[in-house]
Write a structure and sequence with these properties.
The protein is an alpha/beta fold. It has two domains: 230 residues, Phosphoenolpyruvate-binding domains (TIM Barrel); 30 residues, no CATH class. The protein has eleven helices and eight strands. The protein has an eight-stranded parallel barrel, surrounded by seven helices. It binds 3-methyl-2-oxobutanoic acid. The site of 3-methyl-2-oxobutanoic acid has 11 residues, from loops.
Length: 275
């Protein structure tokens, strides 16, 4: 018997599995992934959705916002993630100006994530303002994840990375945005940096899964940026982040040890040398 036959092959997660998890009251797990190694970790850990977030502009490219990230860069990263994701559903994040300037362009760009990069869905930011865009992308057969509340592509309009929905008018606006996302046919919606009470209210009104980031415990699932979870990004840490490892510290120590061993002549030793 070949070794492969003993390996249990898990089928790829689809949006229908995501709906099912919500229906059964099981939490949906989402993490960002930006390349083959991060996607392998996410996938092997059994995370439901690998989101190729445009947050890569900040945590991979070292930019101060997500705004300069391009479609070609997103395709490049999504391809690496899709190659590693054997079971996780791969969602490609539509970057700034890839869907705001016109519906045809938005559908074409959304399609590139599936056609050129191997994603199974796309995510885009906004509510009522992008309802027609979501509808057109979904009509083309491309599942869409919405994103309301703190939408980083609106950083200049919002005046910074701030908690949204603090007053009644702002709550109503976010509620209307979440409703518009659902009515346009999205399969789920990210709620970012909103009070827990608002996330709970949205969750009680919508039938699609809510995925929270800084939105408290009442969402159907949670998403975080993998560099935050692993402790690989220390320029700033939002309040809603929980660090589960300190990989930057460990990597720094390893690289310093290597430097010291090369400089002192301890590396390479006999066991790393050929006879
Ligand atoms: O770009 C991103 O990684 C995101 C998630 C944090 C939701 O939008």
């Amino acid at each position: 018997m070949s070794r492969e036959k003993n390996v249990a092959i898990m089928p790829k997660i689809t949006i229908h599995d995501i709906y099912k998890k919500k229906a059964e009251g099981r939490k949906i797990t989402v993490l960002t992934a930006y390349d083959f190694p991060t996607a392998q970790i996410v996938d092997e850990a059994g995370i439901d959705i690998a989101l190729v977030g445009d947050s890569l502009g900040m945590v991979v490219q070292g930019i101060d916002s997500t705004l300069p990230v391009t479609m070609d860069e997103m395709i490049y990263h999504t391809r690496m993630v899709a190659r590693a994701a054997k079971t996780a559903l791969v969602v490609g994040d539509m970057p700034f100006l890839s869907y705001q300037a016109g519906i045809d362009e938005a559908v074409r760009n959304a399609g590139r994530f599936l056609k050129e990069a191997g994603a199974e869905a796309v995510k885009l930011e906004g509510g009522t303002a992008v309802a027609a865009v979501i509808r057109a992308i979904v009509a083309a057969g491309i599942p869409v994840m919405g994103h309301v509340g703190l939408t980083p592509q609106h950083i200049h309009a919002l005046g910074g990375f701030k908690v949204q929905g603090r007053d009644e008018a702002a709550r109503e606006k976010i509620l209307a945005d979440a409703r518009a996302v659902q009515e346009s046919g999205a399969f789920s919606v990210v709620l970012e940096a909103v009070p827990s009470s608002l996330a709970r209210e949205i969750g009680s009104i919508l039938s699609i899964p809510t995925i929270g980031i800084g939105a408290g415990p009442h969402c159907d699932g949670q998403v975080l940026v993998i560099h935050d979870v692993l402790g690989l990004f220390d320029r700033f840490t939002p309040k809603f982040v929980k660090r589960y490892a300190s990989l930057k510290d460990q990597a720094l120590k390893a690289v310093r040890d290597y430097k010291q061993e090369v400089e002192s002549g301890t590396f390479p030793a006999e066991e790393q040398s050929f006879k």
